[in-house]
Amino acid sequence: MGIVKTQKSARNIRGTVACDNTTMHLLQANDFVADAIRKDMQQRNILLVNITSSAGSGKTTLMQETARRLQHKLKMAVLVGDLETERDAERIRETGIQALQIVTGGICHLEAQMVWQALQGMSLDGLDLLFVENVGNLVCPAAYDLGEDYRVTLISTTEGDDKPKKYPRMFLTSELMLVSKADLLPYLPFKVPAVVQDAREVNPEIEVLTISSISGEGIDAWCDWLLARVAEKKAALTAMG
């Protein structure tokens, strides 16, 4: 097998991969399934949010806190992607909401086919909000459409504030950036204005919230953002008749 040549990063996350002079439409196959997921979520009136970040940024803790605050206002569930173990799904289920683990067995991202298969094992009736907690990685997941309505990327204060320029495709394809672990800001050389500036130079339209799942900073704003997006989708579908 020859060298795999991939397209350069672009705002459009869809593309192809060339191998031995043969165009293999790997991402196009993913996009076909992603479109099926998107149509299914639209028919069911479910908002699908893809949560991405590096490993250890606080995605699962955020899912736990979000569940505690919103489960009495919305019916919600989480699909969790990890290379091994079901620990994160178990943590989320402890809050009282439905969670299902996708064990990738070493694959560093989720693909639409994995999500589609996992959805067959979930109860979707009456669901308002479905999170897909992606594998911790700022590179590979950026290329894979999962049929989401929104992509939300966490960047934790423990990572350093230079990530948007290092991993631009992820921030280019995200609607919202959450600066997580804000409770650690007094102890770290992390500058929120610097990370916001870099993110908006990559993607001028990206929204930003600074949050801490431990202290609660910004979590109300995050929950309000989710409630507004759910309401917008339901209103749009109602208007369509």
Overview of this structure, please?
Strands 6-5-7-4-8-9-10 form a seven-stranded parallel beta sheet, with helices on both faces. The protein is an alpha/beta fold. Helix 7 (192-202) links the parallel strand 9 (176-180) and strand 10. It is globular. Residues 1-24 have low confidence and may be disordered. The protein contains eight helices and ten strands. It has one domain: 3-Layer(aba) Sandwich (Rossmann fold), CATH 3.40.50.300.
Poorly predicted sequence stretches spanning 5 or more consecutive residues: 1-24
How many helices? The count is: 8
Task: State the CATH superfamily name.
Answer: P-loop containing nucleotide triphosphate hydrolases
* Helicity level: 25-40%
**CATH fold title:** Rossmann fold
Largest sheet: number of strands, sense, barrel closure: 7 strands, parallel
- Give the name of the CATH architecture: 3-Layer(aba) Sandwich
Q: What order do the strands of the largest sheet run in, or round the barrel if closed?
A: 6-5-7-4-8-9-10
Structural class by sheet pairing and helices: alpha/beta
Integer-rounded radius of gyration: 18 Å
- Relative strand content: 15-25%
- Describe the global form: globular
Order of helices and strands: EEEHEHEHEHEEHHEHEH
Q: Under the CATH scheme, which class?
A: Alpha Beta
Mean pLDDT: 88
Count of β-strands: 10
Could you say how many structural domains there are in total?
Answer: 1
What is the first-to-last residue Cα distance?
Answer: 51 Å
